[in-house]
Amino acid sequence: MKTAIHSILSKHRLSSRVPHPLLILFAVLPLLLLAACGGGKEQNQLSEFLSNIPDRSQYRQWTAFGDVAGWYAAYDLERPRSIQQLKGDDQALERSYNMVILPRQTITPNSLNIQMSIIEDQRDLFGFNYLSVDQHIEAGPPPEEITLLSFSYDKQEIADALTDLGYQAEAMGEGTLYSLNEDYQANIQSETRTNQMGNLNRILLFDDHMVIARATEVIEDALDASPRSLADDEVYAAAVKALDEQTLADYGSLIGAIFIEGNYLADQLNSRALLDRPNMTAEELQQFEQAGDLPEYDLATFATYQQEDTAYLTLVVVFPEGTDAQAASEVLEDRLRDYTSVLKRQPLDDRWSFKESGSLEVDGLPVAYVVMRSRLKETTGPNDNPMLYIFSWSDLVFQTDLYFLATE
Length: 408
Fold this sequence. Notes:
Layout: H1 2-9, H2 20-36, H3 42-50, H4 57-61, E1 63-67, H5 68-75, H6 92-106, H7 114-119, H8 122-126, E2 135-139, E3 146-150, H9 156-164, E4 168-172, E5 175-179, E6 202-205, E7 209-213, H10 216-223, H11 234-243, H12 246-249, E8 253-261, H13 262-270, H14 272-275, H15 282-291, E9 299-307, E10 310-318, H16 325-337, E11 353-362, E12 365-375, E13 377-380, E14 386-389, H17 394-397
Helix pairs in contact: 2-3
């Protein structure tokens, strides 16, 4: 990849009116993103998406990848154009799929504002919505989050919609930057509810992919990622390769993956704010002690593989060199088999079941994994409407209900 990029860059003629570094950046991103959106195995798509995320502390805290196209294929469902198409009383199950299961399994980016999609027809307003993208990745906390999206329909639909909304267009490298509001500006007076928070202030649009941010400088962060991105980090590279190992890939399509750095997660688990909530009982503490100590780790990845109506929730943990990954996987297995939610005070054995655990060595780094299984269920919602439910990593990750990863 980098050899090809450098070869192409060497043929570019740089304009004296444009700063030399920016032209390099503008040339690099389209090539990386085109590779990300050009098909191939999920692992390659994921790695290429990560190559556009700078290796910085804020982006290491939270990076989430989702394959929406893969999700629809795994469930053998046809995509609706918008949520507004699913409002009929006879479409309760379809709404569950698209409004509950899809966003929780593929970790819909904050920039796509799923709550507003219920109120507004975002596909007609902006030319895209969370139902219409193919793959996406979001990294970092607001307001510095970077979102990359790929899609497989005519980009003119998006360009025309953004122009109608008042976005200003200007050329940026091989793409077009659409801008609304000042950098990071929220606009509570916006005519569209989606744009009131400024999530879509900047959209860098290419033929089949785009980069979304609240400010131009964040777009430039993505442009500047290639010298040192998360894909270049050996720990993230090991996690991505582990997800593509045949042992795990046999579980189906990789439809979602959340990466959280070990030190950041440890800080969250050991924070006073979390410990002040209902503490673990003496019995639960004893269970953890009996399972053994979990060594410190560099990265935790919460991956979801989908096969028909079954999700395989796979925890992949990368440890420093020299760690006994097999022993660590046994500790994690013991903890997950009988895990009781620390926050909700409920066991989870009715929501998932243990499938397998094991260890790998990836490029010299020890990796432990545990696979849990959850099946799609039909339940009853408000007004006795039928609903669908499947347990997902977002049920635990968003609440930091992850004490099976505690190292202390």
